[in-house]
Design brief:
Layout (H helix, E strand, L loop, with lengths): L20 E2 L4 E6 L2 E6 L2 E6 L3 H11 L6 H6 L6 H13 L4 E2 L5 H8 L7 H6 L2 E5 L3 H12 L4 E5 L11 E6 L6 H12 L2 E8 L2 E4 L11 H10 L4 H8 L13 H20 L8 E7 L2 E7 L11 H4 L14
Parallel strand pairs: 6-7, 6-8, 8-9
Antiparallel strand pairs: 1-5, 2-3, 3-4, 9-10, 10-11, 11-12
InterPro entries: Bacteriocin_synth_cyclodeHase (IPR022291), Ubiquitin-activating_enz (IPR035985)
Protein name: Bacteriocin biosynthesis cyclodehydratase domain-containing protein
GO molecular function: ubiquitin-like modifier activating enzyme activity
């Protein structure tokens, strides 16, 4: 037998009877009779075993939700059963075979990412998120977090006076980030809470950067770098000085605020569930009119007035002469 990426199974007593297994959504690439790739979502495994393509084909045809693991193994010849049991066990461990009852889209998603975040769903149900704002983006973001199963989601119009037990704060706004979101980002730094801003500015949706306090770039870092790289910064500074209260002067349509909340919601869900693919240190810029999307890496500004070491340390005191009382 050639090598396989699947873990060794227990070749002692057969496993206890399990619920009927299903292979719904699994895709297979047959490279040769002895080598195949099995994939669903982020879960992917390459199998290299003699005759594995034919065996896998039989396993997937049997995985229609009516047979448990041992019943599937029992349909094979006795000399093949140990390897088939190992194959079925490995596929199930990677979420490529699943219980028949777990066939809702959300169930299949979490099975597909289980190899990257095994306890993602449990972490999500125990997590908490505070959405700061009172507009349509706030409503969209809060609704998406609730729909994805975040355990505790609340909204407020301003940051709480105490940090509380929140895992993350989000600031949602239909206006440019120069006002409310910056103040809320500073409050999150002071409270030591992970922070994600989302806002609209001249028909462009901005999400991120997600900030881990004093560890990754904050919102001020992002705005300072945008300003420093803007060839028309003086014009844009004058325009920002004319921003008033209320909605952004460019206006927006409902799909724009919905997309803003949904994109931000997905980033929050990935962070809370432990998936290693979030906007920490990155900013998303998305325009629907015309369509474009950019993801930019954001580095910390060395002397950022909000998150640098200088911001947290007092000015040095220079003493001159003897400090001893005479």
């Amino acid at each position: 037998m050639a090598r396989s990426e699947l873990p060794d199974a227990d070749h002692g007593q057969p496993a206890d009877p399990q619920p009927g297994l299903s292979a719904r959504g699994v895709r297979v690439v047959r490279l040769s009779p002895d080598e195949v790739i099995v994939k669903r979502g982020l879960a992917e495994v390459r199998l290299q075993l003699e005759g594995v393509a034919e065996v896998l084909d039989r396993v997937l045809r049997l995985a229609d939700g009516t047979l448990d693991a041992e019943a599937m193994v029992a349909t094979f010849e006795p000399d093949l059963q140990p390897e088939v049991r190992r194959l079925v066990t490995g596929l199930r461990a990677r979420g490529l075979l699943h219980d028949r009852s777990a066939e809702q889209p959300a169930d299949l998603f979490w099975l597909g990412v289980a190899s990257h975040a095994p306890d993602a769903r449990a972490r999500l149900t125990q997590a908490s998120a505070l959405v700061i704002g009172d507009g349509q983006v706030t409503e969209s973001l809060a609704a998406s977090l609730t729909a994805c199963g975040v355990g505790r989601v609340e909204t407020d119009t301003k940051p709480p006076k105490q940090a509380g037990t929140w895992d993350i704060w989000c600031a949602a706004s239909e206006d440019p980030a120069g006002g409310g979101p910056v103040a809320e980002a500073d409050a999150a730094l002071g409270a030591g809470v992970v922070f994600l801003p989302v806002w609209l500015d001249d028909l462009v949706i901005h999400v991120g950067p997600m900030t881990h306090p004093f560890d990754s770039a904050c919102l001020r870092c992002y705005l300072l770098r945008v300003d420093a790289n803007d060839p028309h910064r003086e014009v844009h500074r004058l325009l920002r000085g004319q921003d008033g209260d209320g909605y952004s002067g460019a206006g927006f349509l409902s799909p724009m605020t919905s997309v803003a909340g949904q994109v931000a919601g997905m980033e929050v869900v990935k962070y809370l569930s432990g998936l290693p693919v979030t906007t920490v240190g990155r900013a998303i810029e998305l325009s629907l009119v015309p369509f474009r999307c950019d993801v930019r890496r954001v580095l910390r500004v060395p002397r950022c007035p909000a998150c640098s070491g200088v911001a947290r340390q007092g000015a040095p005191i220079v003493a001159h002469g003897s400090q001893l009382a005479e």
